[in-house]
Sequence to fold (225 residues):
Amino acid sequence: ETGVTQTPRHLVMGMTNKKSLKCEQHLGHNAMYWYKQSAKKPLELMFVYNFKEQTENNSVPSRFSPECPNSSHLFLHLHTLQPEDSALYLCASSRQGSENTEAFFGQGTRLTVV
Amino acid sequence: SQQGEEDPQALSIQEGENATMNCSYKTSINNLQWYRQNSGRGLVHLILIRSNEREKHSGRLRVTLDTSKKSSSLLITASRAADTASYFCATRKAAGNKLTFGGGTRVLVKP
Fold:
């Protein structure tokens, strides 16, 4: 248990569905991240939020829409996804402002787009 | 191109043997971190080494950093079957808050 909780753990959705992934941390961290992990590819950073403000969007398609209502919660809203979007989506948090700290990861949401 | 690249991509050893994997990166860094991932689960932080450090130990783990060669190594001594996992290096640049991961090394420790 890392202190970062992701729900749901598994999600199957059709290409016309709209769904949301949720991430929650109560570690007092102010930076939160979404990563995508596909088979045989490196972990891809998608979005970074510092103090609820988006500080990085790594050229992610608009069908992925992040939301950070407060420092403890992060959402990833999904709509009209493609089968190639099937992957493990990982949320992480860290203490912003200090570079010598580690990231804490959730268990991930295994997403399958059919 | 990715910042961190692990080598080898896969490693199979017998229990009790040592496992060594390497990570190379391209730009200057503030620190380098190693993470472990069990199949289909989240990553767990193992160890962080700062750019001004050359070696660090944590239990059966030994990490080295050579900033002149832009490379790091992770050594797991006296491996156990429970060490079977994927291991990733990640770099944090001197400026900015982003952690960039490599492709990982899959380690299989056979009992």
